Amino acid sequence: MAKTGERDQLGTAEGAVLGRAAHVIHAESPILPDTWAVELLTPEAQSLVRSPDYPGASMIWDGFDTSPLFALNIGSLRYAEDEVERCIRDGLAQYVILGAGFDTYALRRSGLPSGFRVYEVDHPDVQALKRERIESAKATPASVPVFVPVDFESASLREEIQASGFRTERPCVLSWMNTIPYLTAEATEATLSELSDLMAPGSRLVLNYGCDVSLTADQARYLQDLQSRVSQSGEPLRSGWKPKVFEEKLSEFGFRVIDHATEEDLFERYFVGRGDGLRPGVPARLIVAER
Q: How confident is the model at residue 56, as a pLDDT?
């Protein structure tokens, strides 16, 4: 996969942060205040993304409009961070970001409570590149996350995260965003099983997933085109869950669903009244569940 493969194929992580950088620089009202995104780009990419002509062109992929997918992804990150803030107010002191990529929450979130720790879990190659970018950045991070490099083909998440200082006996909040659609159902179930073993009672899990629901003709065409393009780039969409089945699966692994939102709910919470027309246009579901 491009995000977790060889050093010269980290396109997914860098592409995502490039989009967030363009959004926070050019959008009239950014959905996510990702002020650190541009700092993780190369100097060449920073110059590119600052161009006044960049925002519109950046949403077009060989004639394909990616803005409905971008809106879903950035809206999902905002959804996750809103839950993290609630958990901080409730006294939770551990935040785990699974598949963190170039996430910037720890880098830009000032004033975190004393003792609060952010753990970022991802492939070693992705994290090595990210650490290089942080070290070379002109800005000073508000805090630096605890990096937990995990190659899931050869290492255990539990072993690696415990070695980093994570306390399995204490509740945490864990986000798992914009990843499950690219996993098989079997891989998703295996990860949920591992998370159930890792997360103490009272922990919160926030995630999104691709859903198997009725589609309009426009949605069906869009998803077919999207699948064709991501398959060609080496990262095909591999799973779509019926919402009731996914809730049952979470229950099987000891999670109680607290919120089960749709892409339309995401629109109502974060996108209403935007002048740029940005809105989540890909069918998806977002969940907050308690262990």
A: 67
